Amino acid sequence: MSTLKVPQSVPSVADDCEQLRKAFAGWGTNEGLIISILAHRNNAQRKLIRETYAQTHGEDLLKALEKELTSDFERLVRLWTLDSTERDATLAHEATQKWTASNKVLVEIACTRSSVQLFSARKAYHALYMKSLEEDVAQHTTGDFRKLLLPLVSSYRYEGDEVNLTLAKTEAKLLHDKITKKAYNDDDLIRIFATRSRAQINATLNHYKDEFGKDINKDLKTDPKDEFLALIRATVKCLIHPEKYFEKVLRLAINGRGTDEGSLTRVVATRAEVDLKIIADEYQRRNSVPLERAVVKDTTGDYEKMLVALLGHE
Amino acid sequence: MAFNQELEALTKAFSGHGVDEKSLVTILGKWDPLERESFRKNTPHSFIEDHERHFQRWDDHYVRLLKHEFVRFKNAVVLWTMHPWERDARLVKEALKKGPSAYGVLVEVACTRSSEELLGARKAYHSLFDHSIEEDVASHIHGIERKLLVALVSAYRYEGTKVKDETAKSEAKILSNAIKNVHKKPINEDDEVIRILATRSNKHLRAVYKHYKEIAGKNLDEDLDDLRFKETVQCLCTPQIYFSKVLNAALRIDVDKNTKKSLTRVIVTRADIDIKDIKTEYHNLYGVSLPQNIEEVARGNYKDFLLNLIARG
Predict the structure, then answer these.
(1) Rounded to 5 degrees, what are φ and ψ at A217?
(2) What is the pLDDT of residues A210-244, one digit of tens each?
(3) Is the CA virtual torsion A235, A239, A241, A247 positive or negative?
(4) Which residues of chain A does CATH 1.10.220.10 include?
(5) At residue A203, what are phi and psi to the nearest 5 degrees?
(6) Is 1.10.220.10 the CATH classification of the domain at A84-154?
(7) Res A314 pLDDT > 80
(8) Best interface-test mutation with A: which of B92, B123, B125, B134 has the largest number of A CBs within 10 A?
(9) What's the CATH superfamily of A243-310?
(10) Co-location of B221 and B255 in the same domain
(11) Which residue among B201, B236, B271 closes a domain?
(12) Higher pLDDT, residue B81 or A29
């Protein structure tokens, strides 16, 4: 469920554009005004605002935001304003350019978006970067990571509920065999996670637990420092329990010393219109503190205000 | 027509691709029992003489083959009328069922369709078979071909004109090295080769093809021994040559039934795309026009249908 709060009667697009222009005008910027508009418009509305702003003022709204805003606030507003498919393409591109073994963004995008959304992101990637996403992933990742990531970003999973229980049994056994032999980069293990539908994987993992007594991710935790294993665990979590995956990302970003603004920004911007409410509930359940309160404790200024607005409070 | 001529015409009507329905109707339809017996006695590969009981029976195997010939026209019509997405999805499914000898069709579909057409096929596949194409390709293929084929059907290639020539040059070098070292590392285990062939755009690959020729002196597909890799390069870089070769192989007499089916498949799937260019290339390669070859080898409604498809536009 989304946390986005859009007013009952939304001002016209022309009004919004005018107000945004006013917010940029003169010395300094009226950040509050920007938040009050952009943080309360949905994907379609923001797209329209962006188009109209460009037509009216001859400048891409995103460029204006980049010029006028700074630091974490700027990144959050800019990411948020982007249309969701361009956002995914942008995040994926960043991930390939600055790829490290601990980077989970590609898995996140490949596994928590629907088949159609993932494909739209791939299309946006063509338009933005004049290349295909799989080209860049293949070029910038190596070894076992490439072996897993390439099919994940190329997948176009069947999205129905049909499940073959016999197949689930066979594939659960296969996974268990491979995991027992520590063959984590096995072709068939990767094949199952990269190509099967969510419903089928869910059935397989249920059977795994019934038959072998443990959650597959527990069995995949043999070496907590192994980053490839961490990536497979992230894949499983993103496919079956995305809200738990995102809760953990937030928890690691906020709790404890310091804040990982990059991850916090990314999760809030990408999930506000999708399931941030469910993630927030999961956060509260797991940490005994409302997400909004934890965010306020850990962030300041306009960045904090924008986050809180996207969380549906204010 | 004298009886001998009729015999000849009828034998011809049953031979080749498809059947000559008209001759069957006009000649066979009017023959009396003696004439039909003469036909049975004079076509030994279709009938078996039972000397003990004094009659001639149809050869079962031949009747099965004949069934395919009658149905060739119907299959062409059905395939032609299908939405291209359903067509490609069904071609893939059929190839997976048939096994390794048919995997060339997977390469063909994955590499000669536009990115949007291939996406359409993947959508249709969901609808028709409740699975994703990559799921089925990955789970049905266990051999060394799996890596390449899964990567090919999963591609969503960039289709613009931007090509980085430096990258194309360096990737041509990578391919050349991989081919030279094939005795140390087989080409289907080389992740870099698969990466280049399965993810780069068509325009980029054609630039790579060109640079490869400059480096190695030969065409990339000629230097690749693995059949699927060869087909991949041909489909991506020289599709009209690839299709001409497939057609030429299909238009021989006495080919196996899979090869025979490729005649329908190529003509139906390319009639709206590049059949004109294929015709030109065919003539370049074989010195004979494609319609003429089809005229010689195909029969009846099937023949007329194919010639019509080729002659359009």
Answers:
(1) -65, -25
(2) 999 999 999 999 998 999 999 999 999 999 999 99
(3) positive
(4) 13-69, 84-154, 165-240, 243-310
(5) -60, -40
(6) yes
(7) no
(8) B134
(9) Annexin (1.10.220.10)
(10) no
(11) B236
(12) B81
3-state class (DSSP) for residue A226: coil
Contact B119/A151, CB-based, under 8 Å?
no
Query: How far is it, in rounded angstroms, from Cα A88 to Cα A95?
Result: 10
For A64, the token pair is: 């204006």
**Residues on chain B touching A115 (C-beta within 8 angstroms):** 132
Taking a contact as any Cβ pair under 8 Å apart, which residues of chain A between 138 and 167 contact chain B? 138-139, 146-147, 150-151, 154-160, 162
DSSP chain B: --HHHHHHHHHHHTSSBS--HHHHHHTGGG--HHHHHHHHHH-TTTEEEETTTTEEEE-HHHHHHHHHHHHHHHHHHHHHHS-HHHHHHHHHHHHHHH-GGGTHHHHHHHHHS-HHHHHHHHHHHHHHHSS-HHHHHHHH--STTHHHHHHHHT-----SS---HHHHHHHHHHHHHHHHTTTTS-GGG-HHHHHHHHHS-HHHHHHHHHHHHHHHSS-HHHH--SHHHHHHHHHHH-HHHHHHHHHHHHTSSS--HHHHHHHHHHHHHHTTTTHHHHHHHHHHHHSS-HHHHHHHHB-HHHHHHHHHHHH--
Q: Across chain A, what does the average pLDDT equal? A: 94
pLDDT surpassing 70 at residue B111:
yes
User: Where is average pLDDT lowest: A41-45, A283-287, A305-309, B5-9?
Assistant: B5-9
Residues B199 and B221 in one domain: yes
Q: Which residues in chain B touch residue A131, judged by CB atoms under 8 angstroms apart?
A: 158, 162, 201
Radius of gyration of chain B (CA): 23
B284 in a structural domain: yes
Tell me the angle at which helices B191-199 and A143-154 cross, rounded to the nearest 10 degrees.
20
Whether residue B89 is contained in a domain is answered as: no
Q: What is the mean predicted confidence (pLDDT) over A72-99?
A: 96
B22-41 pLDDT tens trace:
999 999 999 999 999 999 99
Confidence of residue B313 (pLDDT cuts 50, 70, 90): low
In chain B, the largest separation of any two C-alpha atoms, in whole Å, equals 78
Residues A115-148 pLDDT 10s? 999 999 999 999 999 999 999 999 999 999 999 9
Domain A13-69 CATH superfamily = Annexin (1.10.220.10)
Amino acid at A56: T
CA–CA min distance B150, chain A (Å):
8
Mean pLDDT value across residues B134-149: 94
Q: Are A80 and A49 in contact (CB under 8 A)?
A: no
pLDDT given at position B32 = 93
Q: Which helix (H) or strand (E) holds A94?
A: helix A84-97
Q: Which domain holds residue B19?
A: 3-58
- Looking at the domain A165-240, which fold is it? Annexin V; domain 1 (1.10.220)
Q: Full-prediction pTM beyond 0.80?
A: yes
Closest Cβ opposite residue A191 in set B131, B139, B158? B139
Domain count, chain B: 3
Query: In this structure, is residue B97 part of a structural domain?
Result: no
Same domain, B189 and B223: yes
pLDDT bracket for residue A26 (50, 70, 90): confident
Residue B92 domain-assigned?
A: no
> How close does chain B come to A105, measured CA to CA in Å?
20
pLDDT of residue B257: 82
pLDDT for A28 equals 81
Cβ of B133 within 8 Å of Cβ of A191? The answer is no
